[in-house]
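Re: your question about Dynein-related subfamily AAA family protein

S., sorry for the slow reply, the queue was backed up all week. Below is exactly what I fed in.
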Amino acid sequence: MSTVNGHNQKAEVAKKAAETVLRQHAEQQFAEELEELAKIDTRKRPPNWKLSPWAVRTYLMGATLPNGFEITPKYIGNPRLMEIAIATLATDRALLLYGVPGTAKSWVSEHLAAAITGNSTLLIQGTAGTDETAIRYGWNYARLLVEGPSPDALVVSPMMQAMREGKIARIEELTRIPSEVQDTLITILSEKTLPVPELNMEVQANKGFNVIATANNRDKGVNELSSALMRRFNTVVLPTPDSMEAEVEIVERRVASLGKALELPAEKPALEEIRRVVTIFRELREGRTLDSKTKVKVPSGTLSTAEAISVINNGLAMAGYYGDGVLRADDLAAGLTGAIVKDPVQDRVVWLEYLQTVVKEREGWKDLYRACREVL
Ligand SMILES: Nc1ncnc2c1ncn2[C@@H]1O[C@H](COP(=O)(O)OP(=O)(O)O)[C@@H](O)[C@H]1O
Ligand SMILES: [Mg+2]
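Result:
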């Protein structure tokens, strides 16, 4: 009995500690959902997976379980895309999530790793400065000098760890990594082994190992994948939300959970305010008003759903700390302007024109027009 209590206490302490971190990993934040799913999941699991592909899909898309437990949707969009992504990870091909910024590539990658392996932290951030050691392994130079190459002097990369443990390694922004470094992945993905010639050994991947990479096509200085590497990946393109309703729902859900995590002292935003921001984003993105009557100019930046979430969230902080806790046009104006005007000259013209021709004329939008003109 006492060991059970001790165990419970330890779990409690871990839970408390997780509550004070600014951002929990998916497997921490949604631990309860993952547990409930595991309990009822009797379907076949690929080797070393914590859940069946069916349960992973349910975790991503959300559902009410037979016992009434609510699984929140993580990805809002076409379930087929998630099925393809999950099924890919059960094969010998790696998964590449591709698309414009802010389409939930990183978000989906984290949740997939959390649901499949219970660990989303085996992460390599791709940058122009990412070198081979970040993907393969490095050396602890102090030990290397004293002992020479030895297993203890080896600095294990997240990739090597994922191979050893049969887990999923995540690579963020793969196309920002220089091409010759990208190609170190070829052996890992095709032979499923990581040779360490200095120690005359290799690390062979255990069952369950796979890689999820994300890449976007809008970055400056992207390094296209070589065709040899591309062949090792199955690409799933994540689109921008196709309907207004879907986009509003994404923003609403994410704002609610972010607001809770940040403990913002503001009320839940009115759906109407979310609709206004999403409308503006969609119209500017598409270059015409939703009723297709008016053409508008397109600003230089990508106005993604992720940015709409930030604008509302920013507005909530303004409303909570400087206003009366209710999100209004004044609280949104600065954030909106900041998101849209990325180029101080051209985008300012675009935004001004949109304000004059669309926002000013729209029924019930005068408050937003005035607030935005004030900060521009
Ligand atoms: N279809 C979607 N379903 C759920 N959340 C979404 C969707 N599209 C965007 N988001 C939200 O947008 C935010 C940014 O997504 P992120 O994964 O960082 O984008 P990127 O594609 O640039 O990696 C996340 O908080 C995510 O929840
Ligand atoms: Mg990303």
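The chain has 18 helices and eleven strands. The longest helix spans residues 2-20.

Happy to talk it through on Thursday.
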